[in-house]
């Protein structure tokens, strides 16, 4: 901590979430750029300033921010930075930051509707959606000053390119430096855990919700095509040699999905019933996380036509397609 390596400095900040610490990165480009911005807590802000001070910097020296994605542990400290600072990210993050009234009601409606379809009992739906919103107090209310898309070179960051890496979040991006293969990856690839393919409402103007596990698998295959030497991740250690890690992630996910398929062989089940079987001890406490993990496996199996889905009494019932 507290030093530059190849023009990059890592800041490590605490979060109130089970994932533990989150990393932000400074890039010394033509503009001093902060990639991701911790959670909105006094504790994170104090440590942020202290770690900048070790680099002989203050928050006012930061000239722009690039966000990998909108999750609270990656954006919260924006509310402590200058209100005139430029913030760049993929446009799909915007609604999660500004949280305008339209999106707030769309958000609740989407999750309530989906959770009912998943067969989650009414008395668990409301509290779970509210839990999700509670975490937003650690988020930021800034709005974006510029949008970043696939292969863009962010202003002041000559040599860096944006890679769209959607899945864990809609609008997730990573920054890749062509000359030495450095990737600042956000949560796209972590050394110790696989990021949750979280459910999100349909993109603006669309009706179908995205299928985050399918997007994520595509993202992993895309990363295999890039000569990546080291990943500076949003959580945990830096690592290289991503090919075997990606292969392992893809095959573990496939195995988990096939386990879910076997659960659907005797009789059809709702997503909630599968969720209870997959996560018998934590599903109640962490319903949002466990149901998105479950939906991910079901989406994946549907895409392979290993299972089929039908609607019954306003719930979706999933069944294995037999042999
Ligand atoms: Zn995240």
From TrEMBL:
Protein origin, superkingdom: Bacteria
Q: Where is the signal peptide?
A: none
Q: Which Pfam families match?
A: Lactamase_B
Q: Which PANTHER family match?
A: METALLO-BETA-LACTAMASE DOMAIN-CONTAINING, METALLO-HYDROLASE YQJP-RELATED
The protein's name is Glyoxylase, beta-lactamase superfamily II
Q: Where does the Metallo-beta-lactamase domain lie?
A: 21-235
